[in-house]
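1st attempt posting a full record on here, be nice pls
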Amino acid sequence: MRDDGTIETEHSLEEPRMKKMGATGQRRLKCIHQICACLWVGGAVSLTLMNFLMIPADGAALYGIHLAMKFIDDFIIIPGAVGLLLSGLVYSVFTNWGWIRHTWIAAKWIINIYGVVFGTFMLGPWVNSLAPLAKEMGPAVLSNPVYLNNVLMLRIWGTFQVSTIIFALIISVLKPWKRRTVR
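the predicted structure (as tokens):
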């Protein structure tokens, strides 16, 4: 009982909840989220395939390949990953999906945050280093240890990154784990 004589109910003890998004807003958000996922996954797969399969004819072609890789990273992968992170935040705050209500959502958060951080601090600098080295050294760059190391790291860790974000895409569709009991 309150001081004013009214009786508190369980409902009145709850903190005010943020207004949830309606069905139309959720459909629009889902479209944005899926477009961002397509950008990130498609860009990452493209970048990885370019790194393995494109064989330049000369130094200019090598430089062009690396400029194209940087373009894909800067204008497809990064906007897709950041858009996915932001739309995920909106999903968590303004819908009933929540932050970790389902194990598969928690797994997606881990993958997304890992992907953005690892991509920013490791993969991005490796990609960004290739074009300037190729421009400066031409075909001789193919024997440069820094260049060769960065290409190798992109092949190994870029493939791992692609695998993890494809896994996140798969669990988004399959929603494989049961609901967590979060209070």
